[in-house]
Description:
By secondary structure, this protein is an alpha+beta fold. It has four helices and three strands. The longest helix is centred in the middle third of the chain and has 11 residues, at 52-62.
Amino acid sequence: MRIQAIIEDKLQALEPTFLTVENESHMHSVPANSETHFKVTLVSSRFQGLMPVKRHQQIYSLLADELSGPVHALALHLYTPEEWQARGEDRPASPNCRGGGA
C-alpha cells in the first residue's frame, strides 16, 4: 500500500468530515515518485476545545510509524467544522521548497 493511502486510512480514526492528503514530494529535492512530504487538511469535531499542539499530537500518534520512517515532512492544517466554515473551507498554500539540489 502506498504511504499516502496508509495516512488516509489511519486518519479515519479521527472521524473527519473533510480530509485531504496531498503528496507534495514533487515540490522538493527528492527522487521522482517519492512519498516523503505530505500536506494534510483534516476537519473533525474531535478537535473541539483542543489547542493546536494537542491536535498535532493526535496526528503524530496515529502516524508514528510513517513519521519514523518514510515521511520526512508533514504539513498539518487541522480544523473543527466551525473553524473550517469560518475560513471559507480554504487552507493555506504550501511554500516553495528552499532545500538544496537533488
